[in-house]
Amino acid sequence: MSTPEAGKPVYNVKNPCIAKVKRMFNLSGPDAPKHTAHYEIDLAGSGLEYTPGDSLAVQPTNDPALVDDTLKALGFSGTEIVKHPKTAAEVPIRQALIEGALITEIDNKLIKAIVEKTGGNTPLAELSQPEKKEELKNYLWGRFVIDLLLENPTAKFSPDEFIATQKKLNIRLYSISSSQKAHPTEVHLTVATVRYNSHGRARAGVCSSFLAERVTPNETLIPCFVNHGKGFRLPEPQEETPIIMCGPGTGIAPFRAFLEERQATNAKGKAWLFFGEVSAKSCFFYKDEFDAYLADGTLTKFSTAWSRDQAEKIYVQHKMLQHSAEFWAWLEQGAIFYVCGDASRMASDVDKALHTIIEKEGGKTSEEAAAYVHAMKEAKRYRRDVY
């Protein structure tokens, strides 16, 4: 609910809801290329409210092991007192780095300070020239603050100087994967743990690894609040409007929420879900739930794409094209098309497939198809939550 009622608590970045994870379980099997998990956060007594299509803002903390390595590279004990980057309270630097500094990203202030402290005797001196923006970006990819400290050992900082070069550790947003009508005192998340190797060091996403590795159910406190997604909403339950949902990987999150909501409200109108992942054996998230929604009519049609279960790679856009005549018929019936997930490749591939279907099945030129898609956007019938 976007407008809080009188007397209801208002949660935000300065006043988050302090909650605990009640339950967590793996959605991906041991053979999956990446770990994906389901998290159930307890909201009992908090008064926090959300609607399917909203995101949950989570305030993570840094990995203490990475903080300790960073302190070692700086030559600090960790007990030195500094101003907390977020609260300005006087705290030990170890606490400040765990809670308040984005040590997995490099601020220009740090680059500038290292150039000054090394007297320009660092590759960063040349890379920080305005015309080398792209080269600097490539150089910094996969590097954390610790890498620059280890690569430039002559750059010595006082604790206060170092803290002044750090970005603040901010919230991370995750699409909510539950309906409050189905789970009145909980909010659910579907999160893939970001892990990779670069420059000889194992790396991890701050918030996804916080949830996966540093949260103890019913113990760890998680500051969070709702970020209301105004544009990503279901039609009213009594409306006959068909919906088509496309959410590969963790893009499935809001559509699990949509289906829970549709079942709880006995929503009218047809619903078609496209889901894709690497393999049906290791990555068929929420399979039993979706099968049950198909059985009870909450879901009309379910199309899956498994990229590695056969010789050729099959993605959600291929499944759209495979069902192009039916997809076009749904569009002509006024269907709303929702897309959630990866912006860099999936969303553009799905967009191309949408244009192709409209051209082919609607007998339109590419210009007419583009105009049709534009009209869909104007009418809020093409809604995207991509990241």
Structure, described:
β4 (81-83) and β5 form a beta hairpin. The protein folds into three domains: 17-58 and 171-227, Elongation Factor Tu (Ef-tu), domain 3 (Beta Barrel); 64-163, Up-down Bundle (NADPH-cytochrome p450 Reductase, Chain A, domain 3), CATH 1.20.990.10; 243-386, Rossmann fold (3-Layer(aba) Sandwich), CATH 3.40.50. It has a six-stranded antiparallel β-sheet with strand order 6-3-10-1-2-7, with helices on one face. Strands 13-12-11-14-15 form a five-stranded parallel β-sheet, with helices on both faces. The mean pLDDT is 95. The chain contains 15 helices and 15 strands. The chain has helices at 64-74, 93-100, 108-117, 123-127, 133-140, 145-151, 159-163, 206-213, 253-265, 280-283, 287-296, 316-322, 324-332, 346-362, 366-378; strands at 17-26, 36-42, 55-58, 81-83, 90-92, 172-175, 186-192, 195-198, 201-204, 221-227, 243-246, 271-277, 301-306, 336-341, 382-386. The chain is an alpha/beta fold.
